[in-house]
Structures are given as structure tokens and as C-alpha cells.
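Researcher: Structure for this, please.
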Amino acid sequence: MTHARISLLPFPRLLSLLSVIALLIGIFWFDLSMPLGASVPVLYVIPVSWIALWSGRRETVALILTGLTATVLIVLRYGFAMTSHPDLAVINRLLPSCVVWTTVLLALFRKVQEEDRKMRETLSQVLQKLTGRKKDS
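Model: Predicted structure, C-alpha cell format:
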């Protein structure tokens, strides 16, 4: 009698993704409850940073989707706003969006650097095996 194996590997990632979604929804709710001049949209950097830290080197889709979702929620909150100073409201929404995408870009650059470092290490090991030399310390 054979038993089906259940892989537990996807569950931590699923829980992290659900936590990020819950955090995005909580920040959006908090943003809706505050006046438009408050700097609540900067909090959207937290879930983006969280995804950037726990995701692997090649997992960029979750990072980009989190940044996109945060930007959509920031703009959506601007759409719900009734303000007498629309210029201030636009700036108040544009700056956090820039911070979110700067965080996304820096995280993507970090992932590229990690991938490059890993590839260089692998190439160095292969070359050492081929030439029979040991790495100088």
C-alpha cells in the first residue's frame, strides 16, 4: 500500500503570500480611515519589502505583483478622495508610489546580483574541477 506524499514546501510561501495580501488590505483600510494628507501610503513599502526579502533569487513575479497591487491601492484611494487641494493629494500619492517602485527596483537589482554571484561561484567550481587547481585562499 503506497501513501501519497504531501509536500509542505508550498505552504510557507502560500502563508507568506496570504499574509502580504492581508497586510495590503489592512493598510488600504487604514488609509481609507485616515485623512488624505496623512502619510499612510508609505506603509505600502512594508509588504513590498517583505516579499523582496523572503522570495528567492528567481521569484520576481510576486515582487512585481505586490508593487503593482500597492500602486493600484494607492491610486484607488486617491480616487475615493474628496479634497479641496487636488495638487497636494496627487503629490501625496505620487511620492509613495515612487518609493514603492524604487524598493521594487532595488530588490530586483539585488536578485540579479545574487544570481550573478551564484553563477560565478558555480563557474569557478567547474573551472577548478576541469583544471585540477585548488582555490587560492
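Researcher: Any notable elements?
Model: DSSP finds four helices and no strands in the chain. The chain has one domain: 10-131.
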